[in-house]
Amino acid sequence: MYSSKITGMGHYVPDNIVTNDDLSKIMDTSDEWIQERTGIKERRWIKEGSDDSTGTMGAKAARIAIERAGLTKDDIDFIIFATLSPDYFFPGNGVLIQDMLDMPTVGALDVRNQCSGFVYSLSVADQFIKTGMYKNVLVIGSEYHSGALDKTTRGRGLAVLFGDGAGAAVLSRSEDISKGILSTHLHSQGEHAEVLTVKAPSISHWVPAIIEGGAEDTSYHPFMDGQKVFKHAIVRFSEAITEGLEANKLTADDIDMFIPHQANLRITQFVQRRFNLSDDQVYSNIQKYGNTTAASIPIAMSEAWEEGKFKDGDLIVIAAFGSGFTWGSVVIRW
User: Fold this and answer.
1) Selected catalytic residue, list 20, 113, 115, 185
2) Edge-to-edge strand order for the sheet containing 257-260?
3) How do residues 242-255 score in pLDDT, each as one tens digit?
């Protein structure tokens, strides 16, 4: 039997910092309004003219993760890339990473599960390793939101939330089954697909229709019913965490570090109170980066690891909820 162990992590965010005060100059909002509802103080947006993209950010994070794992690009057996903002409509970013890192012709898989993309990707990588198919799997979450946001008062409800960035992890085979990923738990509920969505371009509303609609057609901007997302998120977060703990005969008292998807600080605080976790047991960086969707958990994990917050034997729980709806959790013994 094998276990899959995270052996290296890395992250990259653009240099361009956009504060709430910066946004108040281009839309009707304020620092107080944004912080009160989301906890966000600033985010990173790719600057116009920059060479950064979803793919290049992912590659930068991946190089760091591979080096920290003590491996080379030639040691990677498989690539999993999670994003909702790929460089192209197709092909996906996985193959672009294979080329950018000049890797051998290994397989590459793209995961389109939005905010829970990294959790789903870890689950897939975990199974590939535990079955003995692969030894080292590179998992990347990367997002370039800022180029698609409606940065006007009309779009402020979403524009203030999202940031750009990438995080990556290397999962490696281990014969010590007491450590590594203990279990993963995945769920979906498609009846709520249109509560958080980008409807175009799609086969039902392709590019000519968008052009014909002109400035009044907002189908290619993200839409979210914030209240419904919040109400479902606090329930599903709690369920996924409980499911993971019970599957491993653990309780909330056993958690050393909880790293949630960085969607909204208010959601995180609600879950923290639900499980009676101290501030030292919860890692949040949404204040600095906003919601980076599939990149949020790997960025947070990479930062927490750099800050020395993971000790040998620690129990780490990660959980995510987002568009789809999809949600899930991962329980890790570090």
Assistant:
1) 115
2) 180-188, 326-333, 315-322, 257-260
3) 999 999 999 999 99
